[in-house]
Amino acid sequence: MDIDAPKFVARLQRGDNTAFAQLVQHQHNYLLATARSMLSHADAEEAVQDAWIAIHRAIGKFEGRSQLRTWLTRIVINQARMMLRKQGREIQFDPTSEEDPLAHRFREGGHWQDGPRQWDLGGPDALLTRDELRHCMARCLERMPENQRLVLELRDLQGMDFDAICNMLDISASNVRVLLHRARARLFELVDHFQETGEC
Amino acid sequence: MLKCKEVVEKADALVDGMPLSWRERLAMRLHLIMCHHCRRYIRQLNALVTSLPHEPQPLDDEQTKRILKKIDSPGN
């Protein structure tokens, strides 16, 4: 469903309830996934529900200057940040405090000490289609720092472009790139380890 | 000559189809000709990123109604 189709957006702006119900039906789980990368499951549900109320009130004023999903996601992120602030927490997007997850794989001179394993990517039992590995990846995502998880969610799981992510989170392109690299490197490490040992 | 660590840091830009300068492209190409670890890293990183699930399921009608009901409830 193309939620950015001009006719659909115009129906939403006119207050068409059927169009709004379709929007909720198709976008809720995207927004929930965004909120879950910042909050606990229960808080994420509450933040998205509150976001829908805010969206319902404001949709008539949506001007189409960004894609609709970017606008929706921004509202959810603001709700989630508000909730975090109430709990005395905040997500820091400065990536300098953490080491690259692959740093230990290189010699001092910057060349591989411990190169990547050959992954089994073909055939019906291909590594990346295995359920056990999917469980491991889900656990890895849960343990990932929120700033990395959120950037990975927006870029690699929801396919947003870099400019939208920078604007939405109000951080520089280089910080987005570093956070994304670290998130992917964590997943790479996990799959590499799973290839070798069959365990998380 | 690029170090493997630098290639790994630039690999994300390659996977995302970001433009590299001709100098960076040349340096990457020369490195990748000689380094099978980095070739493997880029190939597998690409497979990993493209295999991540993209489309969450839409809600069913009941779940949608439940959310709409809360939006319409008095006080909102």
How would you explain this protein's 3D organization?
The complex is a heterodimer of chains A (200) and B (76). With 200 residues, chain A is an all-alpha fold. Chain A has 8 helices and no strands. Chain A has helices at residues 6-13, 17-36, 41-58, 68-86, 131-143, 146-157, 162-169, 173-197. The two termini of chain A are 36 Å apart. The mean pLDDT of chain A is 94. With 76 residues, chain B is mainly alpha-helical. Helix content of chain B is 70%, strand content 0%. Chain B has helices spanning 4-15, 22-34, 36-51, 61-72. The radius of gyration of chain B is 22 Å and the shape is elongated. The model of chain B has no long low-confidence stretch (mean pLDDT 92). Chain A: Residues 135-187 form the RNA polymerase sigma factor 70 region 4 type domain. Chain A: This is Sigma-70 family RNA polymerase sigma factor. Chain A: Residues 23-89 form the RNA polymerase sigma-70 region domain.
Offer a few descriptive terms.
heterodimer, A: 200 residues, mainly alpha, Rna Polymerase Sigma Factor, Chain: A, Arc Repressor Mutant, subunit A, 2 domains, 8 helices, 62% helix, elongated, B: 76 residues, 4 helices, 70% helix
